[in-house]
């Protein structure tokens, strides 16, 4: 909220009249109950004048700065869902036309771009499309001495789902909380979070959907939200390897940023060490998958998109009544049984 207000003030004249107008807007936004009759002697805003003035001046305000009454009002306002109305919905970059025109060099690295003007260089706004790798991607022969596992395509589906889930939850801004975003990725992805080895696309999707429908995340949208994410997977796969490499590179940056943030956070050494170890393994896995994707023909990725789409249809057929049982590896052979349980 503070960032939005400060950004608006940058485009307005910094006179007293303007500031008081913004103050009145904030107080109207934070009215506890617009249907209740207002008492002129009672301040019904969530935040006090002192707190709002601190926000307008660009000062840092966190929950601990609020009074007990302000905390109670803010929590009621948060629980009501009103805060969501103040957030502009994010449009996923992979659904934009520009995503179909992504170009990388033959070795998978970013193409040399003309120098941007000074205003673009100084802008803090992230690009719509994530940047690809800054350095060439090595051949798989340089990373492993054996043939890559045929299950990597399945693992890619798992990873794409966890990435799309996280970006939609964070409204496209994982930079605001790299550690939290990375932890969400690890909790949704069997491959990155549990060192899982799903053997079929169905198994990978079912695990991700189970996490989406779990008590920790079901308030976000449950099964319908999860099925929409399956469409995201199909869309990304249909864009081809350049878009997938940019996606994986963005995920790698998220995980690496989380690792850097952990160094500055105060946590118990054991827990911190375990988390850093998980992040390091996840980052290596993402990079390996990135190198693998670079060597895959677009025809193979299109075929994988078709398989994902078919599995979604199957899941909708079994799960139309939202009554699911826990998925097992042999679920594909158990016709008539539900696949996922929305807890």
TrEMBL record:
Transmembrane parts of this sequence: none
The entry's protein name is Shq1 C-terminal domain-containing protein
PANTHER family, per this entry? ZINC FINGER HIT DOMAIN CONTAINING PROTEIN 2 PROTEIN FON -RELATED, ZINC FINGER HIT DOMAIN-CONTAINING PROTEIN 2
Q: Which residues form the Shq1 C-terminal domain?
A: 139-255
Q: Which organism is it from?
A: Gossypium barbadense (Sea Island cotton)
Instruction: Give the domain of life.
Output: Eukaryota
């Amino acid at each position: 909220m503070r960032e939005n207000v400060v950004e608006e003030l940058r485009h307005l004249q910094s006179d007293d009249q303007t500031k008081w107008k913004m103050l009145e807007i904030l107080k109207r936004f934070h009215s506890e109950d617009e249907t209740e009759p207002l008492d002129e002697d009672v301040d019904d805003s969530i935040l006090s004048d002192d707190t709002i003035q601190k926000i307008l001046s660009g000062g840092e305000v966190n929950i601990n700065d609020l009074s007990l009454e302000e905390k109670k009002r803010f929590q009621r306002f948060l629980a009501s869902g009103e805060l969501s109305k103040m957030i502009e919905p994010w449009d996923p970059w992979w659904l934009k036309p520009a995503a179909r025109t992504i170009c990388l060099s033959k070795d998978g690295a970013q193409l040399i771009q003309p120098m941007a003007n000074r205003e673009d260089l100084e802008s803090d706004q992230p690009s719509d499309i994530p940047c690809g790798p800054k350095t060439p991607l090595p051949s798989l022969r340089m990373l492993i001495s054996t043939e890559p596992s045929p299950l990597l395509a399945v693992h890619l589906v798992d990873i794409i789902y966890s990435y799309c889930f996280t970006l939609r939850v964070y409204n496209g801004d994982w930079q605001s909380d790299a550690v939290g975003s990375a932890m969400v990725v690890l909790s949704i992805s069997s491959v990155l979070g549990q060192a899982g080895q799903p053997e079929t696309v169905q198994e990978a999707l079912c695990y991700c959907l189970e996490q989406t429908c779990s008590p920790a995340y079901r308030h976000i949208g449950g099964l319908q939200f999860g099925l929409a994410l399956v469409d995201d997977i199909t869309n990304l796969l249909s864009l081809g390897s350049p878009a997938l490499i940019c996606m994986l590179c963005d995920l790698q940056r998220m995980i690496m940023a989380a690792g850097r943030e952990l160094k500055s956070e105060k946590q118990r050494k054991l827990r911190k060490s375990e988390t850093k170890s998980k992040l390091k393994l996840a980052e290596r896995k993402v990079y390996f998958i990135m190198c693998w994707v670079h060597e895959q023909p677009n025809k193979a990725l299109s075929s994988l998109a078709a398989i994902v789409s078919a599995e979604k249809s199957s899941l909708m057929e079994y799960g139309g009544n939202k009554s699911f049982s826990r998925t097992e590896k042999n679920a594909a052979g158990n016709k008539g049984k539900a696949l996922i349980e929305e807890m």
